[in-house]
């Protein structure tokens, strides 16, 4: 078998067989197929596309290109959630404890933030001593004993995807639906869960800017999951404004804790209950979605989800005291209000720019080596559809550097646009793909 022949086959619009895809992925991963040939293949796929079977085979080949996490020692059906990324997305911090409090094993691999999107691990490190660098044995023990553990993504998980994404990033072949879907799902399948619930963001702060593209991606990923024998559901949710109100690591942790106490963002709680209900239903822990929703709301009312969060943090070496006293979380030295220079209804928020404001303050990474300031960020006071008076506070900004604060404020004020006509608040859950 020759890579040259496979490139020509795809260039001419023909479908690749499973053994051909396996040969291609294996050869690229071990270095026997060079970058320039794989670049040509990616461009051929970009223009010619892949059918359903090809996309599944590519995903499976990438998932098995390295380690596949064996979760068979964990009792019961395992659930996992994946978000396509957004601004203020602290879902895992609320959803994980809610689901785990109901006895469903949550065995999760999470990443760090890069660019304007935050990472779950960075947020959790707001708890002094917390570590995701635990052994597989400790990970499995924690899930069996307290029903929840989160570890960092290993270098050996789907290495073909890591190499392929780096190549696509520099050859203008990132935005192909099959390649995006297979990239996301290869890591999820390698992570070993039985039920996969996907939170596909749509809007100005999301990877997919239009609802049409987000729904198409959701359908593609659900199809892959089902083809791989996994119970898979996708929720398409709004990212035309940040999720909740807080953006920034410790600030988002505080909002997550408030939500677990029943005092936080209604949008955040609604998303977590929607995602969680499909996790419960998919693992046979609820007879219906309605029953699952009732159970999840119950974990907020009886504070069992809050207690589970504290148990989880402590089990991974963290100081859980801030869960009961959020003033103990990392604090910024400078706190200022950003007031509106205009009056009217909030018409639009450039959400990815809000993420960049947090990045400028030091709350995100420009590169993988960048140091993060856990205390900085902002808390919004006005969202789409809200009425704002001139001079009223749009947000509170938290900083540790005056120069960064100045640059962040100048950037922030351009993110809001206003209208004199009353604007309906946007529908938060856009669709559910089963």
Automatic annotation (TrEMBL):
GO terms for cellular component: cytosol. Its EC number is 2.4.2.2. One of its GO terms (molecular function) is metal ion binding. One of its GO terms (biological process) is pyrimidine nucleobase metabolic process. PROSITE patterns: THYMID_PHOSPHORYLASE (PS00647). Transmembrane segments: none annotated. Signal peptide: none annotated. The keyword Kinase does not apply. It catalyses: 2'-deoxyuridine + phosphate = 2-deoxy-alpha-D-ribose 1-phosphate + uracil; uridine + phosphate = alpha-D-ribose 1-phosphate + uracil; thymidine + phosphate = 2-deoxy-alpha-D-ribose 1-phosphate + thymine. Keywords: Glycosyltransferase, Metal-binding, Transferase. It comes from the Bacteria. Pfam families: Glycos_trans_3N (PF02885), Glycos_transf_3 (PF00591), PYNP_C (PF07831). InterPro entries: Glycosyl_Trfase_fam3, Glycosyl_Trfase_fam3_N_dom, Glycosyl_Trfase_fam3_N_dom_sf, Nuc_phospho_transferase, PYNP-like_C_sf, PYNP_C, Pyrmidine_PPas_bac/euk, Pyrmidine_PPase_CS. It is an enzyme of class 2 (transferase). Catalyzes phosphorolysis of the pyrimidine nucleosides uridine, thymidine and 2'-deoxyuridine with the formation of the corresponding pyrimidine base and ribose-1-phosphate. Homodimer. This is Pyrimidine-nucleoside phosphorylase.
């Amino acid at each position: 078998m020759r890579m040259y022949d496979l490139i020509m086959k795809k260039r001419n619009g023909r479908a690749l067989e499973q053994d051909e895809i396996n040969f291609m992925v294996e050869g690229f991963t071990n270095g026997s197929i060079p970058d320039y040939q794989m670049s040509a293949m990616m461009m051929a796929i970009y223009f010619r596309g892949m059918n359903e079977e090809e996309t599944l085979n590519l995903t499976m080949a990438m998932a098995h290109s390295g380690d596949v996490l064996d979760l068979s020692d964990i009792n019961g059906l395992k659930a996992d959630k994946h978000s396509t990324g957004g601004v203020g997305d602290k879902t895992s911090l609320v959803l994980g404890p809610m689901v785990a409090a109901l006895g469903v094993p949550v065995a999760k691999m999470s990443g760090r933030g890069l660019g304007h999107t935050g990472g779950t691990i960075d947020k959790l490190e707001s708890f002094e001593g917390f570590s995701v660098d635990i052994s597989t044995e400790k990970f499995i023990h924690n899930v069996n004993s307290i029903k929840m553990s989160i570890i960092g993504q290993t270098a050996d998980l789907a290495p073909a995807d890591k190499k392929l994404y780096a190549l696509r990033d520099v050859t203008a072949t990132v935005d192909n639906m099959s390649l995006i879907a297979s990239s996301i799902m290869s890591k999820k399948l390698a992570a070993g869960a039985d039920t996969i619930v996907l939170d596909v963001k749509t809007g100005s702060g999301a990877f997919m800017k239009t609802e049409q593209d987000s729904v198409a991606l959701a359908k593609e990923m659900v199809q892959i999951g089902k083809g791989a024998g996994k119970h898979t559901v996708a929720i398409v949710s709004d990212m035309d404004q940040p999720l909740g109100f807080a953006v920034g690591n410790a600030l988002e942790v505080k909002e997550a804790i408030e939500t677990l106490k029943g005092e936080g963002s209604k949008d955040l709680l609604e998303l977590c209950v929607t995602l969680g209900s499909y996790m419960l239903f998919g693992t046979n822990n609820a007879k219906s979605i309605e029953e699952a929703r009732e159970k999840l709301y119950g974990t907020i009312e009886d504070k069992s989800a809050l207690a589970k969060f504290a148990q989880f943090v402590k089990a991974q070496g963290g100081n859980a005291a801030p869960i009961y006293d959020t003033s103990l979380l990392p604090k910024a030295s400078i706190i200022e209000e950003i007031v509106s220079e205009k009056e009217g209804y909030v018409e639009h928020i450039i959400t990815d720019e809000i993420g960049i404001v947090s990045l400028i303050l030091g709350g995100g990474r420009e590169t993988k080596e960048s140091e993060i300031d856990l205390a900085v960020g902002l808390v919004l006071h006005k969202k789409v559809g809200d009425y704002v008076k001139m001079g009223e506070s749009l947000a509170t900004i938290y900083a540790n550097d005056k120069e960064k604060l100045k640059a962040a404020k100048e950037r922030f004020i351009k993110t809001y646009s206003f209208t004199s006509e009353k604007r309906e608040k946007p529908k938060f859950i856009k669709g559910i793909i089963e």
